[in-house]
Design a protein that fits this description.
Blueprint: H1 7-12, H2 15-22, H3 31-44, H4 55-67, H5 77-80, H6 84-93
Length: 96
């Protein structure tokens, strides 16, 4: 749901309604817990306002994955990320 198209809808939609919509993807998570998690994300403004992944965000993700053992070594941003489509979406959504 993250991304340019979803961001205004997420902002305007209750956490409970979002939890109901995405709940099928998380069948083992209690709906109240999922709604609480979504509300926390909304409160902290963790949903992206753009689908473009910035190098800084990619580095934070790698830091977390390295510390959690999901990665053994850093991988270059240019190897992993292609923002071409995300940039096209941003261009299409610009007014004017």
């Amino acid at each position: 749901m993250a991304g340019t198209a979803a961001s205004p809808q997420i902002s305007a939609t209750s956490a409970g309604s979002i939890a109901h919509t995405v709940g099928g993807y998380f069948p083992d998570v209690d709906p109240a817990v999922l709604a609480a998690c979504i509300q926390r994300y909304k409160t902290l403004k963790l949903w992206a306002t753009s689908p473009v992944l910035a190098p800084e965000g990619f580095e934070r993700l790698q830091d977390a994955m390295l510390s959690g053992g999901a990665l053994r070594a850093r991988i270059g941003f240019d190897i992993c990320v292609d923002n071409t489509l995300a940039e096209a979406v941003n261009t299409e959504r610009r007014p004017g």
